[in-house]
Write a sequence for this structure.
């Protein structure tokens, strides 16, 4: 009898416990709120200032720095940044109601020209703007040098023609007249060559390569060397071409011929009579290295970085004596750039120079050959 009673008691207790559990399971759960850090407050003014290309500094009325945009932050980390900031602080210290604008040039640790403009606001704060004028100043200097050089280059032959023309009017001897006329023709050719080189250089800077083609390097070298036969023979200068591997570059035959011609012409002009000029080509990591080596007067080490500038001559008096325009190596540099290549020079003063024109090789076809090679039939 006790066993059924115990079973019933257990059932009653179980039902009661189940009811309690169901009741508590229906009670709403309390969810603790998640506390998040507040979002950093954005300054819309600084967002705008950070998009500007110039450095902007903001100071309080006592001259203490309050904020600066991202360009100003980058400026601080540059070599000349702290010097510029010192200039800004000095200018801010004496800033009045009238805006102040000054230009400052720094030669060290880096050559840089900046314009600092500062103005005091109504609340006493001072805003300073720093504009980097370095590129603009360099461009203005280049333009000024260009105008001076081209004026000189054209004035010399034109002036000579005027003097020679006057001499003709007073000369009766036929032999003298012939010499004067030949000299006039030479000066006129010099002026014409200068203008032609200027036009070619301008076209190279802006035109690029309109219709690229496959150019055989061996054929290119052969065509250029053939043009120098009448120039080198009277001086007993030998232009030797090393064995040429089969190399093809992609680009403009006309531009590449002009570049190589100028390099060989430069070597001939600065080589002594009975000397040797060597031309070679070799593949190097997907490129071809064209070397034009002479045993002429060489170039001082300090001048190596400037020889490719337009109108620049290592020895100005000697350069004009050879009849050069000072534009040939600048043309070479632009041709190399148009073809994705480079040009450099290795030289020891008094021991000759080697110019290296590096050009990317043309991509090979599936058959392993470059198609449509220009100048292949000229060899």
């Amino acid at each position: 009898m006790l066993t059924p009673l115990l079973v019933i008691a257990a059932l009653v207790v179980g039902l009661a416990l189940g009811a309690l559990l169901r009741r508590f399971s229906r009670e709403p759960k309390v969810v603790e709120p998640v506390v998040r850090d507040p979002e950093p407050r954005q300054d819309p003014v600084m967002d705008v200032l950070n998009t500007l290309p110039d450095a902007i500094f903001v100071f309080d009325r006592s001259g203490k720095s309050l904020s600066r945009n991202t360009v100003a932050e980058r400026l601080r980390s540059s070599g000349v940044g702290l010097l510029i900031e010192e200039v800004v602080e000095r200018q801010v210290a004496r800033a009045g109601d009238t805006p102040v604008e000054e230009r400052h040039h720094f030669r060290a640790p880096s050559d840089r020209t900046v314009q600092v403009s500062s103005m005091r606001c109504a609340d006493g704060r001072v805003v300073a703007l720093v504009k980097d004028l370095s590129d603009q100043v360099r461009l203005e200097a280049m333009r000024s040098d260009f105008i001076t050089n081209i004026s000189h280059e054209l004035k010399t032959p034109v002036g000579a023609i005027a003097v020679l023309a006057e001499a003709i009017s007073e000369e009766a001897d036929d032999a003298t007249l012939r010499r004067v006329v030949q000299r006039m023709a030479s000066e006129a050719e010099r002026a014409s060559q200068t203008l032609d080189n200027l036009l070619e250089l301008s076209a190279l800077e802006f035109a690029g390569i309109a219709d690229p083609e496959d150019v055989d390097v061996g054929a290119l070298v052969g065509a250029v060397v053939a043009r120098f036969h009448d120039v080198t023979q009277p001086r007993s200068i030998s232009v030797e071409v090393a064995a040429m591997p089969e190399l093809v570059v992609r680009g403009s035959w006309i531009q590449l011929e002009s570049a190589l011609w100028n390099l060989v012409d430069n070597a001939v002009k600065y080589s002594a009579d009975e000397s040797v000029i060597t031309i070679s080509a070799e593949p190097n990591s997907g490129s071809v290295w064209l070397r034009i080596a002479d045993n002429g007067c060489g170039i001082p080490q300090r001048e190596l970085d400037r020889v490719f500038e337009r109108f620049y001559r290592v020895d100005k008096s000697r350069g004009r004596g050879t009849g050069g325009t000072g534009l040939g190596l600048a043309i070479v540099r632009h041709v190399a750039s148009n073809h994705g290549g480079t040009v450099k020079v290795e030289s020891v003063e008094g021991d000759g120079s080697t110019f290296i024109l590096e050009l990317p090789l043309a991509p090979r076809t599936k058959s392993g050959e470059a198609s449509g090679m220009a100048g292949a039939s000229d060899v």
Observations:
- The CA atoms of residues 289 and 358 lie 5 Å apart.
- The radius of gyration is 38 Å.
- The longest helix spans residues 134-169.
- The chain is about 45% helix and 20% strand.
